[in-house]
């Protein structure tokens, strides 16, 4: 069954392309026409930057593939940009002594255009290959053997194109193609009437293939489609001039460079998004590891780890109080109203405990209906007052005031112990508070007992 074409995404893409290309074209035109004095070195300088940008993108794609082997389609894009960077080295070789502002007559514009043609061929074919691999990424094809076979095909095609570009440039007299006259700088009819239009058509095929297969599912494919549109516009800019001495020659390369910078910016945004998602997952995972799933109070392990960390505070003379509490007759509530209602009671009590302590204090569930509080820099008198406030807060609620969380009024027994020196181990501190809590239960329940 064919999926409905995402018209809304396509309209968003068209809007982005129109605005982006118009802005980039406007700024590139202004720049080129206002700084003609740097024209001799502008093209090779932009080519050098473009080579670095394409290398960065290729490395980025390889790294993403190594992080997730299910994204084999990224290797086709990586190979496309890596091959493009290599061909730009050939372009720089066509500008001898460019960094010393060499004479224009020394430039081999024909080789430059040949390398440009093969760059476009490699990128369009490998972009289409990437889209095809993306379309079948969910299939059972991600074995080592299949990856090696596909990667060999991708690299083999790129190597063949690189060799052909080298042979068709000035390095093999037997193979040559005339695209521009190095003496008059005029484009040949082969370039103007055939090859330039052929590249436009190939990029259009690539663009529509990308849109219809990926359906612009995410920002990555949005940026890929925008990149295709920019290359089509670059070719149209080249068509507007008749020779390599015109503004269009430099404007096309500047436009290509700026659009590639935009793609890198999008990739950085993608990295930031992935980092944020990963960090959020890590934080959620960490919180789940230290919190009780029912009450979201801290768990027993975190309680003891926090108590151990507070020993430095105790050594400095700051008292630390431990409060251990247990619900009275909780088994009767479970037996009479069911465990689901019992869970609601525990959640209600946990909320009261959390609201009764300071932000830096630790409220934990250390047993079924047993809770513990860790109060830093709190003496015995203050801890007793806090425990009494908790006992009264829980005892004053009934079914109505608790919004049916409590099926009937409940009470709680609380034990308190305050440690002032390091002579008492952490486990012993908790045991003493627990013993005080059992004394409270043994003397009638619903009360606070301080360990002595």
Automatic annotation (TrEMBL):
Pathway the protein takes part in: Purine metabolism; 3',5'-cyclic di-GMP biosynthesis
Keywords per UniProt: GTP-binding, Membrane, Nucleotide-binding, Transmembrane, Transmembrane helix
GO cellular component, one term: plasma membrane
InterPro entries: Diguanylate_Cyclase, GGDEF_dom, MASE4, Nucleotide_cyclase, Rev_trsase/Diguanyl_cyclase
Keyword Transmembrane helix: yes
Sequence ranges assigned to domain GGDEF in this UniProt record: 318-452
UniProt enzyme class: transferase
Residues passing through the membrane, by range: 12-32, 38-60, 72-93, 113-136, 148-168, 194-213, 220-238, 258-275
Domain of life: Bacteria
Key word Transmembrane present: yes
GO MF annotation list: diguanylate cyclase activity; GTP binding
PANTHER family to which the protein is assigned, alphabetical: DIGUANYLATE CYCLASE DGCM-RELATED, REGULATORY COMPONENTS OF SENSORY TRANSDUCTION SYSTEM
Protein name: diguanylate cyclase
Source species of the chain: Kluyvera genomosp. 2
């Amino acid at each position: 069954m064919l999926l409905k074409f995402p018209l809304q995404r396509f309209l968003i893409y068209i809007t982005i392309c129109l605005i982006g290309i118009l802005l980039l074209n406007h700024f590139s035109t202004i720049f080129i026409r206002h700084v003609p004095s740097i024209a001799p070195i502008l093209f090779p300088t932009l080519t050098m930057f473009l080579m670095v940008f394409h290398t960065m993108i290729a490395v980025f794609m390889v790294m993403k593939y190594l992080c997730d082997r299910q994204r084999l389609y990224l290797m086709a894009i990586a190979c496309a940009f890596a091959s493009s960077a290599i061909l730009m080295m050939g372009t720089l070789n066509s500008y001898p002594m460019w960094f010393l502002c060499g004479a224009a007559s020394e430039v081999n514009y024909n080789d430059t255009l040949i390398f440009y043609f093969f760059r476009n061929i490699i990128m369009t074919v490998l972009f289409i290959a990437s889209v095809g691999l993306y379309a079948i990424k969910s299939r059972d094809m991600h074995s080592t053997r299949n990856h090696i076979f596909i990667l060999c095909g991708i690299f083999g095609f790129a190597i063949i194109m690189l060799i052909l570009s080298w042979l068709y440039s000035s390095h093999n007299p037997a193979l040559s193609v005339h695209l521009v006259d190095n003496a008059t700088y005029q484009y040949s009819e082969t370039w103007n009437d055939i090859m330039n239009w052929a590249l436009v058509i190939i990029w259009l095929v690539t663009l529509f293939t990308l849109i219809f297969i990926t359906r612009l599912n995410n920002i990555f494919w949005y940026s890929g489609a925008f990149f295709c549109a920019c290359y089509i516009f670059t070719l149209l800019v080249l068509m507007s001039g008749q020779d390599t001495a015109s503004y269009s020659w430099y404007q096309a390369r500047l436009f290509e460079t700026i659009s590639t910078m935009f793609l890198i910016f999008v990739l950085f945004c993608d990295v930031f998004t992935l980092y944020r998602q990963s960090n959020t997952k890590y934080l959620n995972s960490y919180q789940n590891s230290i919190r009780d799933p029912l009450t979201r109070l801290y768990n027993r392990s975190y309680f003891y780890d926090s108590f151990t960390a507070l020993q430095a505070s105790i050594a400095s003379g700051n008292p630390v109080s431990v409060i251990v509490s247990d619900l009275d007759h909780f088994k009767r509530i479970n037996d009479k109203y069911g465990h689901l209602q019992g869970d609601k009671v525990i959640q209600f009590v946990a909320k009261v405990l959390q609201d009764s302590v300071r932000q830096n204090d630790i409220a934990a569930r250390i047993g079924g209906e047993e809770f513990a509080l860790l109060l830093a820099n709190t003496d015995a008198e203050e801890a007793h007052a806090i425990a009494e406030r908790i006992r009264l807060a829980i005892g004053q609620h009934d079914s109505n005031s608790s919004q049916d969380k409590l099926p009937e009024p409940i009470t709680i027994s609380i034990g308190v112990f305050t440690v002032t020196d390091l002579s008492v181990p952490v486990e012993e501190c908790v045991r003493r508070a627990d013993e005080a809590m059992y004394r409270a239960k043994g003397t009638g329940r619903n009360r606070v007992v301080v360990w002595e």
